[in-house]
Design goal:
The complex is a heterodimer of chains A (about 160) and B (about 700). Chain A is α+β, with helices and mostly antiparallel strands and about 160 residues long. Chain A is built from six helices and five strands; from the N terminus they run ββαβββααααα. The termini of chain A are far apart. Helices cover about 30% and strands about 25% of the residues of chain B. The chains are: A alpha+beta (about 160), B alpha+beta (about 700).
């Protein structure tokens, strides 16, 4: 079926099986491979994207849900001013290890930063609880997001 | 000093780093492996689903293997593909390729086999309890005083069990093979720890049908933790075979549920400890350890895991009368393999739990009991090797200081007397031998290469892979710092077997310890060759000397000598040391343990990059804590976990707070770091539960179900 939606700010059209996963659409049809498949069952959060402004695991979203929707991937987040500042904080804290889960963390923490942004460790932990990282034990991820919240001046 | 920012950070954060599933080639096929759905039996028939057009698929069975159907390993007993007899559920039977991933996965899912079933042993505890299941070879360390037992000594016997653990690297296994029939070269790219192992696996399966194999890593390797030490050999071998037969590039990426079911895990262990304590001074007079690992159906690299396990089984304790026996047990389950710590977390869990059990029995504080019995410089280890330094004492004392342990013990004891819910704090200590066991590094003679270009770009060629542990940054730092050259102009080159010498596998906490120190030495040699001038100036003055290429080989210290028959001598040249405290709360109504804070003090010698080192410790400690607390892999009546919904990993809300400190960082040697953080947390957690509940749990993970069973 034909579906029209917005991807990283640009209108796009696809013609595919209505059950095709959003994850495969961004990775294969648009070569946006920053979105990763870690589990394919909505557990790990490596495939997190923004759908109509909200973080979702793209392995659990089907093409049929996309008509008229706005999708932003890590590539889109990285282009925004807030996204750039957030990523700079992740860089500065040396939070990254294998990096496979980080595009998902960037998208989820971007959502937190733009919708709450309070430099509150407990809130940050909750906001990122849908993303699994096996390498880091999370501490440096919290530091990075705290730093980004503090730089943005608390409530945005 | 401020740590340099990781060179791989930005590309990974913005999604630009390419992991294996992000690579694509023209006309590429998607591959999938059909794994045995039964535990054991003889295959009588393979039935392919009829709703597909078979001519669209490339299928390879064991008969299609032009070379040898044997995966190269320390013990070469594993087949790439089943020939007739199935030994375990999850054993590869055939591989298939097709242009579409969904189609090939569906096809594989619908394959049926007819089997004459054999009896199968699938319960790992049953396999380990019965000595008749042992593979033939065993390790015995027996250089003790063989003192006669004094009837006054206090005798204690305990058996400790640890379970499978899933590495749960976030990126599943994957390989892309492309056979070039003009040059007869097999190109293989993927996610792995040991490119030369993969090369030898592909050479082995292809035999003389190909001229040579070139193995390259993908830009990003999405975690490994040991799980990508040997299983990639199979994925690479089968991708290569499919590419050879189809004439097209073939990529195999495992589905997560499949990956969890069939790949290598941490070995389950059974450790029986018998100890004899002198009641007059609480010294350990005699110690006997029977250490068993469930290897699975094949031995593969398990003998090496067993070796490390037994060499750490005595822990950091003084005793001149130690007997250690290690055996591998066989079960009808997939071969277990490498996972951070490699046998040491299992045997250290047992001895560190036993030490607390003894203290509990003697009614002394576990800290005092450790202070009394920790070994000191010069004391003999079970192998007769003299303890090289006293840093374990320093680590413990510093830990006690920063964790406020002594005050907490008093406070929590008082709290527990007056409250229904409980608090606890537990200790553990650990050592971890850096690099290959025994003569391993001496025999391997790792080679490294540095090339300095005319534009003063310095390129570091090694085969050790960046899997998250930071070597892309830290190995470049090793060279840049010794050369006095900017890090921005010093590059770790992505491993490629056609360009990099064999600097050995990325395992055994050896990459910085062996390869990093070797690169530092090579950089110092280059520096003394060119004098004091900045590199760029020297190149301008001597343009004809560039590009300059220099190699160096690892040479073991003369003193390193290990007898692999008697296990006498230098088990490891250098040890890292650590002490840990874990604070918990325990709810006796819900049988729930919650870790609140973990303190770790480590001696890893010189720290190359403080941020990266801290990240390694916190990450490893997290894996250790949750191995002890929540990660269970097999459920009675259900079998193996089947994806990340079943196999529960710690999330941001589960992670406790961490405090990490390094001591003796003024050392010139950077020692092993990667594995030791995994060695100590589970025992400290378990000992904290003993403090809080008074119960000596001998098996992990400490899930509420287990505590409930023991409490009621």
């Amino acid at each position: 079926m034909k579906i029209v939606f917005k991807l990283n700010g640009k209108p796009v059209e696809i013609d595919c099986d209505p059950m095709r996963r959003l994850l495969d659409i961004v990775r294969e049809d648009f070569c946006l491979t920053g979105t990763k498949e870690g589990c394919g069952e909505g557990e790990c959060g490596a495939c997190t994207v923004l759908l109509n402004g909200k973080p979702v695991t793209s392995c659990l979203v089907n093409a049929v849900q996309l008509e008229g929707a706005e999708v932003v991937t890590v590539e889109g987040v990285s282009e925004t001013e807030t996204g750039k500042k957030l990523i700079a904080c992740y860089d500065k804290t040396n939070a990254v290890q294998c990096g496979f889960c980080f595009p998902g963390f960037v998208v989820s923490s971007y959502y937190y930063l733009t919708h709450d942004g309070e430099p509150n460790p407990e809130k940050i932990k909750r906001a990122l609880s849908g993303n699994i990282c096996r390498c880091t034990g999370y501490t440096k991820i919290f530091e990075a997001v705290m730093m980004a919240c503090e730089m943005a001046g608390g409530q945005s | 000093m401020k740590s340099p920012i990781r060179v791989d950070s930005h590309a990974k954060l913005t999604g630009r780093t390419k992991y294996i599933d992000d690579y694509r080639e023209d006309c590429m096929l998607e591959g999938a492996i059909f794994f045995s759905p039964v535990h054991a039996g003889k295959i009588t028939k393979i039935v392919f689903p009829t709703r597909f057009d078979l001519s669209e698929f490339t299928i390879v069975l064991s008969g299609d293997i032009p070379g040898e159907n044997i995966v190269p390993e320390p013990v070469c007993d594993q087949l790439f593909l089943v020939e007739q007899h199935i030994g375990y559920k999850g054993q590869p039977i055939l591989a298939v390729a097709h242009p579409d991933r969904e189609t090939v996965r569906q096809f594989v899912e619908e394959i049926r086999i007819e089997v004459e079933p054999y009896e199968a042993l699938t319960e790992t505890k049953v396999a380990m309890d019965d000595e008749r299941n042992a593979f033939g070879n065993e390790i015995v360390i027996d250089h003790g005083a063989h003192r006669k037992v004094d009837p006054k000594w206090i005798f204690t016997r305990s058996v400790y069990y640890t379970p499978h653990q899933e590495q749960a690297y976030l990126e599943p296994q994957g390989m892309l093979a492309r056979y070039d029939d003009q040059t007869r070269v097999m190109h293989v790219r993927g996610t792995m720890q040991c490119p030369y192992f993969v090369k030898s696996a592909v050479d082995r399966i292809m035999g003389n049908k190909i001229e040579k194999t070139i193995v390259q890593v993908s830009e990003g390797i999405g975690g490994a933790f040991g799980g990508k030490e040997d299983f990639p050999n199979i994925v690479a071998g089968l991708s290569a075979l499919l590419s050879y037969k189809s004439g097209k590039p073939v990529k195999i990426v495992l589905d997560r549920a499949v990956d969890i079911q069939v790949t290598t895990k941490r070995h389950p262990s059974r450790t029986e400890i018998q100890s004899w304590i002198d009641p007059s001074d609480h010294s350990i007079r005699k110690l006997s350890v029977d250490f068993r690992l469930d290897a699975g159906f094949y031995q593969t690299l398990s003998p090496v895991v067993l070796a490390r396990g037994v060499l750490h089984a005595g822990g950091c304790y003084r005793c001149d009368d130690v007997y250690i026996r290690g055996r591998l047990m066989r079960s009808n389950t997939p071969p277990n393999g490498a996972f951070r710590g490699f046998g040491a977390p299992q045997s250290l869990f047992a001895i560190e739990s036993h030490i607390d059990d003894l203290a509990h029995r003697l009614k002394v504080d576990p800290l005092e009991f450790r202070r009394k019995n920790l070994f000191s410089e010069g004391d003999p280890m079970p192998t007769t090797q003299a303890v090289p330094e006293d840093h374990i004492h320093d680590a413990l004392e510093r830990l006690i200081e920063i964790s406020d342990y002594e005050k907490k013990v008093l406070e929590f004891a008082e709290y527990n007397r007056t409250h229904h819910d409980k608090k606890g704090i537990g200790l553990s200590v650990a050592m971890h031998g850096g690099g290959y066991t025994g003569n391993g590094e001496k025999l391997m003679k790792s080679e490294v290469k540095v090339v300095i270009e005319k534009d003063a770009t310095v390129k570091v060629y090694v085969i050790n892979t960046e899997m998250g542990q930071g070597v892309q940054t830290t190995l470049a730092q090793c060279v840049a710092e010794e050369l006095g050259h900017p890090l921005e102009k010093t590059f770790y080159m992505f491993p490629d077997t056609s360009k990099a010498p064999d600097s050995g596998p990325t395992v055994a906490s050896r990459t910085i310890y062996i390869i990093g120190n070797l690169l530092r030495k090579l950089a110092r040699d280059i520096r003394s060759e060119i004098g004091e001038a900045p590199l760029a100036d020297y190149i301008r003055q001597h343009p004809d000397k560039f590009p300059m290429e220099r190699h160096d080989f690892f040479e073991a210290d003369e003193s390193v000598d290990f007898d692999e028959t008697t296990y006498k001598g230098t088990g490891y040249k250098d040890y890292s040391w650590a002490a840990c405290a874990v604070e918990i709360t325990y709810d006796p109504d819900t049988w729930t343990v919650e870790p609140l804070k973990v303190w770790s003090v480590l001696d890893i010698g010189k720290v190359i990059n403080h941020d990266i080192a801290i990240g390694q410790v916190i990450g490893g400690v997290t894996q250790g804590i949750f191995w002890g607390l929540t990660e269970y892999f097999e459920k009675e009546g259900v079998g193996r976990m089947n994806g990340l919904t079943d196999y529960v990993l710690p999330t941001t809300l589960d992670a406790p707070d961490f405090a990490v400190e390094f001591i003796h960082t003024d050392s010139d040697i950077a020692k092993g770091l990667g594995e030791i953080p995994m060695d100590f947390p589970a025992a400290a957690l378990r000992n904290a539960v003993l403090f809080a509940s008074g119960k000596k749990f001998c098996e992990i993970p400490l899930i509420p179900e287990r505590i409930f069973r023991e409490e009621t």
